[in-house]
Amino acid sequence: MSTDQITRHFATIESGRWGARQVHYRRVGSGPVVICFHQSPLSSRDMLATMERWKSHFTCIAPDSPGFGLSDPLGVANAEMRDFADAAIEFMDAIGVERAAVYGFHTGAMISAAVAAAYPERIVCAAANGYVMLNEDERADIVAHYLPELKPSWDGAHLTWLWARMREQLIFFPWYRKSLADRMYFDLPPPDALHAGLLDFMRSGDHYRVGYRAAFTMRSDLALRETKVPILVTAAATDVLANQLPRIRRAASCVTVQIGGDTQDTLDLCRDYIKRHKPPKAPRIAPTKPLPGKLWSDYVTLPKGQLRVRRNDDAQGRPVIVQHDAAGSSETVLALASGFIGKRPVIAINLPGHGESDNVMPRGKVTVTAYAKSLDAALGAMGIKEADFIGVWGGGLVGLELASIAPRRIRQLVMADVLYHDETLRQQLRKHYTPDIRPNWYGGHLLEAWYLMRDQGLFWPWYEQNRKGALRKEPHVDPVMIQQRVFELFRSEGMWRHAYQAHFSYPLARRLSQSKVPLMFAAPLWDPQYEASQAAARDFPRAPFVELPDEPSRWARTLLPLLNGER
User: Is residue 385 predicted with pLDDT exceeding 90?
Assistant: First the structure.
């Protein structure tokens, strides 16, 4: 892909201070290298506009901070900003950057100053946009009130709080104090923009407190007093933190403090400052290294975009592909896929438009066949010639179609919780199953999605909220699981609706009658598709039905002997 396009990558830290971990980052441009650090509780997505503005001047590399976006956390409940600086240097080592300029916004500004102060030999210069300078009383107040626990609740009430929290931080600073003295006067962003920030908050989960606390407890005055690296400390005139810049006193002579203009003028100020200090050129993109014993992340680049992949290659033998369903991702089949580690190579590919994969589908043609072709291209790019395939819900349909269009690619197929229904129900599902849920200004869309996903474990179909539709099974409504599915629904940006529609339109019975791939149907007792999977096995006797354990983490134990021919 062109250096003018922002691409996504994973860097592997094999044996750092916090053990083996991966860092997700975005990259664009060519020439001098600038490492860009985002604010909390967001991700490198927050740097997209800056990267687009600077790509003709620099190679911009924007990592997700540990525990944010798609980067692994440090695994600690509390961290100092020096810890984040150490983690940043481990990241630079992993991608082969010996020296760089650094830029950061808000929490990222603190990381930039911390890494410059701690590692002067690695940093050419730093630009800190929106720098926090708190006194002891302010620091104690913020640490006590700014960081409540984020924990999913069965009724979805945490999402109501989260939406209000995202709005309030643009109306008051700090967000929890509601007085005239704390009032700010910004235009509130449109619901879509506010919602995008909320998704980043959901990505970090309760870990958001670690990054925020490190920024607020940092002795930011000492960092500027002790640094030996040139640092520009600035803030846009409209930034609430611009009022704190006059508090900077007794800074080192290499520190420049200057209030910016509007947002774009301030970015240009930082850009020009960095250019004057002539950072070195960036190295080439380093390939992602595996993490033994874990499912590790990577991106597969196709002509129209990138697909996110999780995999483990520790074992020998034919790989097992574990495929998620609509409104899912490799995270939703993580427990299933992890069961194959050390026994078979295992791969989980996020479908186009799902789970941080680009939408590489033909415009206006979201079909099971198009999904299968995308997977076929991804497997070809990865050098996977043949594999066994386990697909959950609609993921099984994709596997069946892949076996049809690339018969040598798929050796065996397991269709778990298969969507095997008559045409009357399929028409009803197409009509009612996928409401168009869009962000609205008061956040009601969050509860709509919550109850949709929650009721999938209580009714079949979920919209038949009556005696007839009530599932007579042990309820499967774990709040953490529902939270993940709501998150997947929203980060698919509407593709979940198209995927379900494609699955409900797929001519499953005809494809099953034509298929020559050895296959099995499977389901746990609690799944709404248990009976449908049994019915498919009765109608196609060559494909046996296998009852799966309740816990997906134990499915591999049941399926692996069958895939190995021990029947």
Answer: yes
Listed residues 217, 242, 276: the one ending a domain: 276
Which tens digits make up the pLDDT trace of 492-522?
999 999 999 999 999 999 999 999 999 999 9
For 502, phi then psi, to 5°, come to -65, -40
Helices (H), 205-258: 208-217, 220-226
What is the rounded radius of gyration, in angstroms, for the C-alpha atoms of the chain?
A: 25
Please indicate, yes or no, if residue 413 is contained in any of the structural domains: yes
C-alpha distances (whole Å) from 326 to each of 59, 486, 522 are 36, 12, 18
> Contact, 199 vs 487, CB < 8 A?
yes
Residues 370 and 260 in one domain: no
Average pLDDT, the chain: 96
DSSP letter string, 65-133: PTTSTTSPP-S-S---HHHHHHHHHHHHHHTT-SSEEEEEETHHHHHHHHHHHH-TTTEEEEEEES---
Type of residue at 229: V
The phi, psi pair for 344, rounded to 5°, reads: -145, 150
pTM score of the predicted model: 0.96
For 417, the domain range is 296-434+484-563
